[in-house]
Design brief:
The chain has about 260 residues and is α+β, with helices and mostly antiparallel strands. The protein has three domains: about 90 residues, Periplasmic binding protein-like II (D-Maltodextrin-Binding Protein, domain 2, 3-Layer(aba) Sandwich), CATH 3.40.190; about 70 residues, Periplasmic binding protein-like II (D-Maltodextrin-Binding Protein, domain 2, 3-Layer(aba) Sandwich), CATH 3.40.190; about 80 residues, Alpha-Beta Plaits, CATH 3.30.70. Helices cover about 30% and strands about 35% of the residues. Strands 1, 2, 3, 4, 5 and 10 form a six-stranded mixed sheet that branches. A four-stranded mixed sheet has the order 7-8-6-9. A four-stranded antiparallel sheet has the order 12-13-11-14, sandwiched between helices. β1, α1 and β2 form a beta-alpha-beta unit. It is elongated. It starts with a strand and ends in a 5-residue tail after the last strand.
Length: about 260
């Protein structure tokens, strides 16, 4: 199965994709929009996308892309994020005077420094023994670099939630599904959001996440994204039906088995 990811080979998305699908052929893409274009266009079979990090929060662009493409979430997984200081083989940590950094990785390694697989690729190409990057063990192995210091993240409770996404016609609902992701919009009137959420509460559906995103081209209007735990796969259908009378739009993004630590 061909799996599109955003970023370079050796990235955390690469690692997640190989854990989500055994024997996956990884197809790196420069941008998230390219990942969804490849999936929608049929050049790949699925996509592995990060949707939320336990420290840095949600990957907001991916909510918009899920809504605007005919795709469905079929699986989720939690990946423990371990950052390592990586340099050219033979470099010494005492010689490092700069580190290539990604803002999210930097935020997670403030007591040390930070980056991702693309930085490892860059420093290997530049053959710079005074530069280092922060990325995964897989990135060091893929590019033939050396780990100078491992596990340098500030907080060990660092996990990223990944979705495996397929074209909707190719997606099948797992009969063991116990979680659903939904997107909906409500009328701009007092109590409309509360009424919609009350319907989920009446069903006994446990709301585990809610996120709002602005509607492009419509100032001060919002799309709400929610995750709910289900007692059965059928409860997901009842949740969609219960929301419909209170919402201008409801879209099921996926019904899948909840990942556990």
């Amino acid at each position: 199965m061909k799996i599109a990811i955003q970023g370079e080979a050796g990235s955390f998305s690469h690692e997640a994709a190989t854990k989500l699908v055994d024997g996956a052929v990884i197809v790196p893409q420069s941008h998230s929009a390219d990942v969804f274009a490849a999936l929608s266009g049929g050049t790949v079979d699925a996509a592995a996308i990060p949707i939320e990090n336990s420290l840095a929060g949600s990957v907001l662009e991916h909510f918009d892309l899920l809504l605007n493409h005919d795709v469905t979430v079929v699986r989720e997984m939690l990946l423990r994020i371990r950052h390592n200081l990586i340099a050219l083989s033979g470099a010494s940590i005492s010689e490092i005077d700069r580190v290539f950094s990604h803002p999210v990785a930097l935020a997670q390694c403030r007591r040390f420094l930070a980056d991702t697989a693309g930085s490892v690729k860059h420093l290997v190409e530049q053959r710079d023994f005074h530069a280092a990057a922060i990325a995964s063990t897989a990135a060091a192995e893929y590019y033939g670099a050396a780990i100078l210091e491992s596990g340098i993240e500030d907080n060990p409770e660092n996990y990223t939630r990944f979705f495996l996404v397929r074209r909707t016609p190719d997606a099948a609902i797992d009969p063991e599904s116990n979680k659903i992701s939904l997107a909906f919009s409500v009328e701009n009137r007092p109590g409309s959001l509360a009424a919609a959420l009350a319907e989920l509460s009446t069903l006994g559906t446990n709301l585990t996440k809610i996120e709002s995103r602005p509607v492009h081209g419509k100032p001060w209007e919002y799309i709400f994204y929610v995750d709910c735990q289900l007692r059965s796969a059928e409860e997901g259908s009842r949740a969609v039906e219960a929301l419909a009378p209170h919402c201008a739009m409801v879209k099921e993004l996926g019904r899948y088995k909840e990942a556990r630590l």
